[in-house]
Write a structure and sequence with these properties.
Elements lengths: L4 H7 L6 E6 L3 H6 L12 E6 L9 H6 L6 E3 L11 E3 L5 E4 L5 E4 L11 H12 L3 E5 L8 H9 L3 E5 L8 H9 L4 E3 L1 H10 L4
Parallel strand pairs: 1-2, 1-7, 2-4, 3-4, 7-8, 8-9
Antiparallel strand pairs: 5-6
């Protein structure tokens, strides 16, 4: 599937080093529709963040490692972020990205009742990567991610929201659209196409 003319215009002349994908209710199913399509030549780093109960071990990295051609692992404190790798935020800690593009874990209070919170990750990533990053917000049942997407847009990054009518839970994408008009609002099939166009860093 090739890009539509609007998507092609939005991406023209841009190169990306990082993709942040956030979601909550319905987010795992959405990621199952996206991550297995990434080729092993995909260049940008990918960081996925879903709302995970703090008292539960996350098996997300393990689940997706068997489905994705790229290396997949849980993000670790002080670890440099590498291209061509899929990272997952673990439970119980906020995940952020420092100016030197390494991960940082913290126990600061929950944001939108969530820790890890999408806003914390996206806002820090926007400050570290500026226009060289893309933020993708998927299905979810609260307002987390809307402020993060607004920061990405303010820093020159690309903002993409799942089509609310397709999402299992539409609140999160709807709030992101209301808060700061994203560059693209796409169904999962369109987001898969978009990712294929971001293959080279």
């Amino acid at each position: 599937m090739s890009a539509d003319p609007h998507m092609a215009r939005v991406l023209e002349g841009r190169r990306f080093e990082l993709v942040i994908i956030g979601g909550s209710a319905g987010g795992v199913d959405a990621l199952i529709g996206l991550l297995p399509a990434l080729p092993e030549t995909f260049g940008p780093g990918v960081v996925c963040i879903l709302h995970i109960p703090a008292d539960r071990d996350s098996r997300l990295a393990e689940l997706f490692a068997a489905r994705v051609a790229l290396p997949v692992r849980e993000a670790r404190d002080k670890e440099p972020l590498e291209g061509g790798t899929v990272y997952f935020a673990g439970p119980g800690y906020h995940l952020s990205i420092e100016a030197d593009r390494s991960f940082s874990l913290s126990c600061e209070p929950p944001v939108h009742f969530a820790r890890p919170a999408i806003d914390v990750l996206m806002e820090s990533a926007a400050d570290a990567y500026g226009p060289a990053m893309a933020g993708i917000l998927l299905s979810g049942a609260n307002h987390d991610g809307a402020d993060g997407m607004a920061r990405i847009k303010a820093c020159g990054g690309l903002t993409v929201v799942q089509e609310p009518n397709e999402a299992q839970a539409s609140t999160m994408p709807e709030e992101a659209i209301r808060r700061s008009t994203p560059d693209l609002v796409l169904p999962l099939s369109g987001i898969r196409t978009l990712l294929s166009l971001l293959e080279k860093p």
